[in-house]
Amino acid sequence: MSHGGGGRASAQLVDELFAPAFDNASLNPGNDGALLPSPAPGHRLVFSTDTHVISPLFFPGGDIGSLSVHGTINDVAMMGATPVALAAGFVLEEGLELAQLARIVESMAAAARAAGVPVAAGDTKVVERGKGDGVFITTTGIGTVPSARVIGGQCARPGDAVLVSGTIGEHGIAVLSRRESLEFETKIVSDSAALHGLVAALLAALPEGAVHVLRDPTRGGLAATLNEIAQQSDAGIVLQEAAIPVQPEVAGACEFLGLDPLHVANEGKLVAMVAPGAEQAALEALRAHPLGRSAARIGEVVEDPLRFVQMVTRLGGRRLVDWLTGEQLPRIC
Q1: Nearest to 112 by CA among 88, 134, 136, 91
Q2: Averaged over 282-291, what is the pLDDT?
Q3: Is the whole model's pTM more than 0.85, yes or no?
Q4: Is residue 323 within 8 Å of residue 260, measured between CB atoms?
């Protein structure tokens, strides 16, 4: 508990573990706030925060550390913004092994370095044994976006093409497989990744204003994301089941477990809704990037006062793609 008490042990934890891992000019002075470069003229700031409580802490393809970096960078990027810096808050449970914490912090630092987005500020608290679950991490991200750019769920329009940057469902199945000690014939790994480079490539390939919506389909999966956008934009969405990319291993695991891939979380995919006529250029830009090679057009935004998300099945029928009642996979991100 002394590591969270604000005394010598707290300072030692910061100086010996956190500061060397996140080493950068904004963090190194050790103040209570970070000084960041002012955004360029004609830009606005984008600000987002997220708390990560995933169980287990380590899973195939990632861990809570890298996930906390990727998740917040992606939330900033989905506004069409360029991420600038992160802040991190750690809630540690008494008894957490320092070696385990060091592994998480190093993974988090490596993810931040790879993304080029520094962890510029942070805080650490320790709670009594039994009042946490090892470690919880809250990350806050800040970025800049051109003043004239407006991208959001409210911007979907009838006629827009609905695109997804790749196969869905890997993250949720990877986490569930480790949590439940399930063994599949082929190892399924999380798709956790920072998507700001993919977003930048997409925006650079299209005229300003052609990208209406960007969203990463995390908790609740593709189904929840599309229903949320339909509500925001007062429109409907029609999907084509045959066009939705799903790895055969994930489809098989979902069938075995009684899950719908549309409801399974992703951490390295995005949904884009682009203006009519822009979809081919958008797909080419996505597929040219390593994180978008399996990008596909999966549907269209339509006029619908009921704001339904529907799917044309492989047999030619239609079914509603509704919100989940409850949570299919708790503690997934």
Answers
A1: 88
A2: 98
A3: yes
A4: no
- C-alpha 320/C-alpha 43 separation (Å) is 40
Give, in degrees to the nearest 5, the angle at Cα 266 between 55 and 288: 140
C-alpha of 11 from chain center? 31
Give percent of the chain above pLDDT 70: 98
In angstroms, the CA 183 to CA 306 distance is 42
DSSP structure class, residue 35: -
pLDDT tops 80 at residue 33: no
The per-residue pLDDT for 182 is: 74
Phi-psi region of 70 (alpha: psi -120 to 50; beta: other; left: phi over 0): alpha
Instruction: Give Cβ neighbours of residue 164 (< 8 Å, ≥ 6 apart).
Output: 217, 222, 244, 245, 269, 270, 271, 272, 295, 296, 298
Contact between 74 and 197 under an 8 Å Cβ cutoff? The reply is no
Residue type, 304: D
Contacts of 97 (CB under 8 A, 6+ apart): none
pLDDT score of 5 more than 90:
no
Write out pLDDT tens, residues 259-278.
Answer: 999 999 999 999 999 999 99
Structure tokens, 101: 């914490």
